[in-house]
Amino acid sequence: MLLTPLLLPPSAAFWPQVARALLAAHRDQLSGLRVIVPAFSHAQQLKAALAQELGGTFIPPRINTLSGWLALQLPDPEAPPVASDSQRLMTLYDSLRQQAWLKKLFSARRNADLLPLAQTLLTLSDELTQALLPGLQGSADAAQQRWQAALAQLSPPARSLLSDESQLVWSVWKSQLDANDAGVARFAQMMRLAADGGADETLIWINPAPSDAMESAFLAAYGERQTVCPITLDWRRSALPALYCEAWRELEQKADDAAGAPDLAAASAIAGLDAAPHGISLMPASSLEDEAQQGAQTIINWLQAGKSTIAIVAQDRVVARRIRALLERAEVFVSDETGWKLSTTRAAAALAAWFDVIATRAETAALLDVLKSPFLCADLPNKADQLMTIELALRRANVAGGWDAVQAAVANCAFESALIARIASQAGQFAHRRSLPEWLASTRSALDALGMTPALELDPAGAQTLALLAALEQDCRALTQPFSFAEWRAFINLQLEATPFVVSGSDRRVVMLPLNGARLRSFDAVLMAGSDAAHLPSQPAETLFFANAVRRELGLATRESRQHQQLRDFTELLSANAEVVLSWQAHQDGELNPVSAWIERLQLALARGPYPLAASSVPTRRVAIDTQSLTPVIASMPTPAAPQLVPAKLSASAYNSFVACPYQFFAARMLRVSALDDLSDMPEKRDYGGWLHRILNEYHSTVRDGTVTERAQFDGDQLGRAQLDREQLLRAISAKVFDDELRKNAAALGFYVRWQKVIPAYLEWANAREQLGWQFVFGEQAFSRELALDQDQGTITLHGRIDRIDQNTDGERAVLDYKTNNVAALKGKLKDGEDHQLPFYGLLSDVPVAAANYVALELTRDKARDKTGDVEAPHYADWQGALQRQIAGTMSAVRQGAALPANGVESVCQYCDVRGLCRKGAW
């Protein structure tokens, strides 16, 4: 027999009232009762309430959830195996991708774009199964009639517009209605249980929310054989505080008072009908960080006051996560019941990065993400150094991506090259179309080969990720349809997104939960984060295909029903907890952010109601956060001295850095602190300079060796033919170099085209210089030289690579340095006298150098300026001598402990990589 529900007011006394009701009606048969509760946490509360009432040892009833009870039943040997969610999803997706009209209808650019559609259709199908399946037991046409009645709620234009979509939903649902469907199998199991599984047990059904169609059918069938006593919350006006009924008039239940309701006087005493509610306060915040800090400090204060059960209701999940981070910084563990998505964990991020590497064919950013993952080769003893070697090599070579380019960049590093080769080999396994079991096997094999599996097993989220892959391998073993890598990746992303990750912990003093997770629970104090209009009530995701009118006719949850249930959950939260703080960001992006309309209506009801002046509004609170006084230190220019760190070698660029700013030299050359080279998808000017160095060195070496023309005095016609031969050579060499670069990055084409325009001007300058008697000797050659320092401070090694050395007919040599600047800029460079590169190269040469020139190879779109020229350094011999004395003196002083002040000028500082160390601008 299905009894009239026992209605209890929403309050902290709910479970004691349940215990008293059970003892009053079933004290002698307590252990023979079957009690079904919404969640396992409620079983502990009921047992505690029974123990409190009985005051001694007792045998409790059998308490379980419906899912737990069904799991204890023996399976039907005649029932076919139930298809897993992943198997249903991919089977349906395989059918959808065969329909070209679907791709056009939903603007799908590729097959994988239909995977979310398949998931949405399955969700709708499950909703329809839950709502309509019980009605199919008596009439096969009942569902069709209900479906047509639901569509009739739409206007004719809307019905015409949605004809294809509605037919798709109906077809998918009908295709799912077989014994393999999990919903169908669950309902069949419920009805078997109602028929013969519990014929000798009185059933106590406790549920704060209305039962769905399947549950109602189960209770009705069970009630035909045994007594069923439903217990639920009382939402009649007589059982609720008058304030809440006045503020939220849609809250109350419209049905007449039902038999079995508690005495109204007792209800009034419990719910406090005649007084304004106590313990509710508002906590507006000025920003997200302010709300998080106020919330965290509030919880810490509650713990210090002795409260042992505290709840954080995460309406605004971003703020809630920040509160959790602040609490964990204060060593307060938060037991998270919200179940963050597994896709947000670093284990899932490592798997996503690995898929990125495969999809992008080793794009550098994706490859570095994988290399820096804590799960990749976690057992390597010097992993950080080896990964830094790889990253520096990729950045210096400005490798945008591609396995060949990456391997070429690390070719000189044996171990690093082997690691990249191993990763490339595993990435190569993810090709062609495969079945899901094969994709899963490849993924597990790659994780093993890359040494990621042991590290993932030690991480809670990593272990759950591996368990998910193992479960999918079991669930999808029957799927033989081939899928592309893009489809496999989209499938895994959906699984990670749909799987909650709950961190286990023994400390339950502070729990984080959703609003519906607080049903039938009470705490010492509750903090609701996100009580603004945007988060309370939470905005339901719009479901494809169905309007609310159709959903209402089909018996599905509508936007209104969801919000109505949220209002009841919110009311229960306020009624069942002694202290509730509602926080929100009162300002966002400089604009006022209103509090929830529910709270505004509560304040309006308080202001209008017959309450004392002190209780005419919900109080506002703000907690004081402890401040720490710091002793200010007046910043001053740093002047470090580190004689023990003076480098043994000195390059031209290093000495120029010393001249520009001694502190820059100290940080970059002595401490070896330097910024990583930026990765760029587009070739940069430095890349162009490197290509020209290679081109011009090969060109002049070929001309020097006499393979193009004989070195002799030419008349006009002979010189013209020689120029033509040399231009063909230079263009051929340029084509070879740029062809190599274009295979790596097509964007180099712009530099190639513009260089081709410079070639005639460069040849004109080079041949004219040759007529003046200068001949190319060698280029791109490294030199080093020991230089004695002053005051017996030892020696320092000068080193560098000279672009080019020429020699004239008198045997004098000249240093040439290529610059991708214009002639005017190079003249200014020499006029300032602050760039010591040319005299430094003169000191490096093994043969005395009489002259030095900058060669301008400016690359510009302005044809009038596509000219090549050179700028000669004045008084070069004197400049070399002065530079030698200067280096010997300054480096000697540094070795003796001279200060290295940060005295660079602004033109130097604005591009300095170590400005964050010297803090210029703060002193």
UniProtKB/TrEMBL annotation:
Gene3D superfamilies: 3.90.320.10. Residues 650-919 form the PD-(D/E)XK endonuclease-like domain. It holds the Pfam family PDDEXK_1. Coiled coil: none annotated. This is PD-(D/E)XK nuclease family protein.
